[in-house]
Amino acid sequence: MRVAIVTGASSGIGSSAALEIARRGDGVILTYGRNKQRGLDTVAEIEKLGGTAVALPLDLGDSSTFAAFRDAVADALMTTWDTWTFEHVVNNAGIGASAMFEDTTEDFFGRLLRVLLKGPFFLTQTLLPLLADGGAILQISSGSALENSVEPGYSVYATVKGALLVLTRYLAKELSPRGIRVNSITPGPTRTRLGDDGFEKYPEVIPGLVARTALGRLGEPADVGKVIATLLSDDSAWVTAQNLDVSGGFNL
Known about the structure:
The chain is about 45% helix and about 15% strand.
C-alpha cells in the first residue's frame, strides 16, 4: 500500500484530498494544527471508507519541530503500515490573510513567508529521506498568484504563493533522478475555512465570485481534492513541473 502525507487535512481542501486519496486505496498521514478533533474526524471518515489513516500535529510555522515530526512519521509508517517509506507529499497547510501594501508590517510579511513558503520548503527537505523513489510531491498554491487574478490586499499572500510555483519547477528538476514528480495546483475561490471562515462571515462576496466563474458556482473542497488525488496517481505518471489551475474557469 502506498502512503501519502497531507498537511493541513483537518478541514477544507486538505481533508477532501485525504479522503479522495484514501478512496483510491492509499494510506494517509494527515496533519492538524490547532484543531486536533477535526484531524481525528478526518481519520474517522477515512476509516468509514475502509481506509487507514493517522493524524499527527504539525506547526508549519516552526521549522525547529520538523525533525521530530519526521521521527513521528517514521514511527507511524512502521507501526501502521510496516514500512519505512511513503510515496506522496501534499503541501496544503497554510493560512489566509490580506493587507494593503502600505499597511503591511514586517511581522505580517514574515508570518506568511514562514508558513506558506519556508514551511513547505524545509518540511519537504526534512522528509526527503523517507520519500520513496518514484513518488510525487504536490504544492497547493493559489489562483491569486496568476496574472489574471490580481486583487488589492493580497500582495504578500500572492507573492509567497507564487514562489511555490517556481519552487515546483526547481524541485521537479532536482528530484527527477529519483523519479520523483513535482507539480502544483492553483485553486480558485473555494468554500473553505481559510481566512478565518471568510465565506461564512461575508456571504455577500459569493455572488460576485460566482459571476466571474465560467462554470457558474463557487468551488467546493471535493472539486480540488479529486484533482489532487489524480495528480498523485499513476494516471499522472508522465506529468511533472506543471501547474494546473483548478478554478472552474475563474476570470475566464
